[in-house]
Amino acid sequence: MNRCLPVVMLVLLLTIATCGPTAAPTALPPLPTPTPPAPTIQSFFPADAAPSGVVINLQGQHFGEEPGTVTFGSTSATVLNWDDTSIDVRIPLDAATGKVQVVVSAGSRRGEAMP
C-alpha cells in the first residue's frame, strides 16, 4: 500500500489541477451595426409643378416604415402616408421651388430630388 500512495497522490494532484477553476471566457466585441442605405427618390406624381395643397406621391427606396419628414425647399410638408417605397404628402402653402428632400425618422439619412 505504501508504494501506491505516491501514485494515488500524483493522480489526485493532476485531477485537481485540471478540474480546478477556469477563467471565464472572454466576450467577443459586438459587431458594428450596419448603416442603412440613404433613401432615394426615384419619381413623383404628378411629375409637373403642382400648386399648394395638392397631394403628391413620392416613389423610391429605403424610406423606412416610420414616418420622417419631407421638405420642399426649406418648408415641411404634411405627410399623409408613409412606407418603405412610397410617401404621400400635401404640398405646403409656402413651398418654394427647388429640391424635394426626404429625411427618415432616425434623422441621419437623407435623399433629395429635383422636381
Spatial extent as radius of gyration: 32 Å
Distance between the termini: 99 Å
Q: Beta-sheet strand percentage?
A: 25-35%
Note the total helix count.
1
Largest sheet: 4 strands, antiparallel
**Secondary-structure-derived class:** alpha+beta
Describe this structure in words.
- With 115 residues, the protein is α+β, with helices and mostly antiparallel strands.
- Helices cover 14% and strands 32% of the residues.
- It has one helix and eight strands, in the order H-E-E-E-E-E-E-E-E.
- It has one helix at 4-19; strands at 40-45, 55-61, 69-72, 75-76, 78-82, 86-90, 100-103, 110-113.
Question: What's the SSE blueprint?
Answer:
Layout: H1 4-19, E1 40-45, E2 55-61, E3 69-72, E4 75-76, E5 78-82, E6 86-90, E7 100-103, E8 110-113
Antiparallel strand pairs: 1-2, 2-6, 3-4, 3-7, 5-6, 7-8
Throw out a few tags for this protein:
single chain, 115 residues, alpha+beta, 4-stranded antiparallel β-sheet, 14% helix, 32% strand, rod-shaped
Write a concise synopsis of the structure shown.
With 115 residues, the chain is an alpha+beta fold. The chain is built from one helix and eight strands. The model has no long low-confidence stretch (mean pLDDT 79).
